[in-house]
Specification:
By secondary structure, the chain is mainly beta. Helices cover 0% and strands 57% of the residues. The strands form 2 sheets. It has a 17-stranded parallel β-sheet that branches. A 10-stranded parallel β-sheet has the order 2-5-8-11-14-16-18-21-24-27, with no helix packed on it.
Length: 256
């Protein structure tokens, strides 16, 4: 396997302010990769500085106990990868612009991804962007604390979690989502709808727009607390076979 391991995020800091057009780690066609206990810090939000990690076609990847601070564009990019765990990581201070808007984690063509116990603060666009232009299958996001994403976005649809196009079997559970532009946004792309989206046991509050917005086929939205969002608590458009059960929606701007 391939290992990049520090001692802890306070003692192992990779800071590379001033290096232009930079991606610290990039690879293709690797198997059994561990990246752990490192603080990645671009030191600036300059638009010449890009992703911390950019991985293509990687299998059996673990990223844990890391911090990703400051940067421009998508900080962790996973393309065509499978069997990925992102555990106990912290993302802070990501900016961007149209065409490269600033995500903590961007995924295209990924299978079997778990994101557990992560935190983000101050992300221009999204914490997680699932781009279904390449198939996205079997994603779990759980036990995360997501704050202040999409607040300064130059686009209209920034937020905590975006699920677009050909995404299937997505599980969003037991997360705290607060002060984002949109909490969870699931929408079709190129006339392809996300399928089998399960949004359960989350606390979503103080979004500028909707707590949850969906355009999906087959979805279960259950046991969520959704409150004090600027528009709807749950907004359902152009969808079919939706199960809503035991959601507590209150004090939202338009309706539950």
């Amino acid at each position: 396997g391939h290992k990049i391991r520090g001692y802890n995020v306070n003692n192992t800091i990779l800071k590379y302010n001033g290096v232009t057009n930079n991606t610290l780690i990039t690879s293709n066609l690797l198997t059994d990769v561990l990246i752990s206990d490192i603080r990645f810090d671009l030191g600036t939000n300059d638009d010449n500085l890009y992703s911390h990690i950019n991985l293509y076609n990687t299998t059996n990847l673990i990223i844990k106990n890391c911090e990703f601070k400051n940067g421009y564009g998508s900080q962790l990019r996973l393309n065509g990868s499978s069997n990925v765990l992102i555990d106990n990581c912290y993302f802070y201070g990501v900016t961007g612009a149209s065409g490269n808007p600033g995500e903590a984690i961007y995924c295209n063509g990924i299978t079997d991804l778990t994101i557990d116990k992560c935190k983000c603060v101050d992300i221009m666009d999204h914490f997680l962007y699932l781009d279904g232009s390449g198939d996205v299958n079997n994603v779990i996001v759980k036990n995360c604390d997501l704050q202040y994403t999409g607040k300064e976005n130059i686009l209209t649809n920034g937020g905590a979690i975006a699920i677009y196009g050909n995404c299937k079997d997505i599980f969003i559970k037991n997360n705290k989502i607060s002060n984002c532009k949109v909490g969870i946004n699931c929408a079709m792309r190129d006339d392809i709808y996300p399928h089998n989206i399960f949004i359960n046991d989350n606390n979503i509050n103080n979004s500028d727009q909707d707590g949850i917005y969906i355009e999906v086929i087959n979805s279960s939205i259950c046991n969520n607390f959704i409150y004090q969002n600027g528009q709807d608590g749950i907004s359902i458009r152009k969808s079919s076979n939706i199960n809503l059960n035991n959601n507590n929606c209150f004090e939202n701007g338009r309706c539950g």
